[in-house]
Design a protein that fits this description.
With 418 residues, this protein is an alpha/beta fold. Helix content is 36%, strand content 19%. The chain is built from twelve helices and 20 strands. The strands form five sheets. The chain has a seven-stranded mixed beta sheet, sandwiched between helices. The longest helix has 26 residues.
Length: 418
């Protein structure tokens, strides 16, 4: 509440419950995740035991963002600790109240020999990155992600980068505009739009835009009242720097809904922009606020072309009553996550990974995917110390018969020894 003006329900849905679900799943499933995994063998290794052992990397650095300061700090921490690592945790200094809270509270509940919380800003983070870690997970912008990756490369440290980007939302002409408006506005305005997987712009025809804008106004009024500023369910921008940046974006295109702002409260009204040009700043950078521009396209083919000209997004959304249109958007585009006729509800499922592709990041986590990310999969073969006579066939000198047998034996697969 102090950092982002989140309501109790918003905090519960997007922060506490998701962390609790990750903890519960790890406790329930860890004994299965940790087991050695037997694999198939060939004829040469038929009498050996072949398996994968999951081992911790060692010391993991987790650099968390400010927009979901509990969720995006603790969820990767759960996975790293479950996999047996020690963790250096760097919460964001931007969400300063949560940063101090984590530093104060976590040592009460976790073994302090397995983790430490490091406080500070960019200077302290830069100093941290000079050290050698065994794994780094960073959540933030592509610009900073490149800095993290460069620092990790000096030590050949593997990384998971959860980055942002502009997430497209295609709306087909056959949609019910009110249904789309309800779903898009709620996901766009949750946490005042400061969500890396939130719909960042809409692609639709001019005809659908004319139907969608009034439906969006109706949804905003129903969700947040005639004066959204007074709604207890609408968050605030994290700080003045981000407020000023968002205020500048309000000059793009034409304001069809909202557009109001109040610097004293760091308030930006839920806003819809139309007549937006692709070259304007609102279409060049991730918005990270309750502002939603609409770009006009004629049909799904043109939408696909528009999306494919840009960097691969962290999430992509498609709304249509025609399943073939949704499938076209899924098949002909690439993104970290995809949702048809829905927003980012996929985040509530630990069974699905969260991760980007290309400019929106690399690697994945959530649920077992977190355990896998922070585990080294070690290939193991245990052979019998005797029975050496059976190995004579693989040793030189090689007769034609030996060559034929070795070729055949190496191709004899799927003989699993449990």
């Amino acid at each position: 509440m102090k950092d982002l003006h989140k309501s109790a329900l918003d905090s519960n849905i997007s922060e506490l419950i998701m962390c609790q679900n990750e903890v519960d799943l790890a406790i329930k499933s860890l004994h299965c995740w940790m087991k050695d995994e037997s694999v198939s063998t060939n004829l040469f290794t038929k009498l050996s035991s072949a398996f994968i052992r999951k081992e911790p990397y060692g010391v993991v650095l987790i650099i968390a963002p400010w927009n979901y300061p509990l969720n995006l700090t603790l969820v990767p921490l759960v996975g790293a600790l479950a996999a047996g690592n020690c963790v250096v945790l760097k919460p964001s200094e931007v969400s300063k109240n949560m940063e101090q809270f984590l530093a104060k509270v976590l040592p009460r509940y976790l073994d302090q020999s397995t983790f430490t919380v490091m406080l500070g800003g960019p200077e302290e983070t830069t100093q941290l990155l000079e050290n050698r870690f065994d794994y780094i997970l960073f959540t933030g912008s592509p610009h900073v992600g490149k800095i993290i990756m460069t620092a990790a490369a000096k030590h050949l440290t593997p990384v998971t980068l959860e980055l942002g980007g502009k997430n497209p939302c295609y709306v087909d002409d056959d949609c019910n505009p009110q249904t789309v408006a309800n779903r898009v506005i709620w996901f766009r305005c949750l946490n005042a739009g400061q969500t890396c997987v939130a719909p960042d712009y809409i692609l639709c025809s001019r005809e659908m835009q004319d139907r969608l804008v009034p439906a969006m106004q109706s949804a905003i009024t129903r969700f947040y009242g005639d004066d959204p500023k007074s709604s207890p369910d609408l968050g605030r921008i994290i700080n003045q720097k981000h407020f000023k940046r968002l205020q500048g974006l309000l000059d793009c295109g034409r304001v069809a809904i909202g557009g109001q702002s109040d610097e004293t409260e760091l308030y930006i009204a839920p806003t819809v922009l139309v007549d937006v040009q692709e070259t304007e700043p609102v279409m060049q950078e991730e918005i990270f606020g309750p502002i939603l521009p609409i770009m006009n396209v004629q049909g799904p083919d043109e939408a696909v072309d528009f999306i494919r000209r840009r960097e691969k997004p962290l999430a992509l959304y498609a709304f249509s009553n025609d399943s073939e249109v949704v499938d076209q958007m899924l098949q002909q585009t690439s993104s970290g996550s995809f949702a048809g006729n829905e927003g980012f509800a996929f985040l509530t499922l630990p069974s699905l990974p969260l991760g980007g592709i290309g400019n929106s990041g690399m690697g994945r986590y959530h649920g077992k995917f977190s355990f896998d990310t922070f585990s080294h999969y070690r290939s193991c073969v245990l052979a019998n110390p005797g029975l050496e006579k059976l190995n004579d066939i693989r040793y030189p000198p090689y007769s034609e018969r030996k060559k034929q047998f070795i070729t055949w034996a190496l191709g004899f697969q799927n003989c699993t020894l449990l």
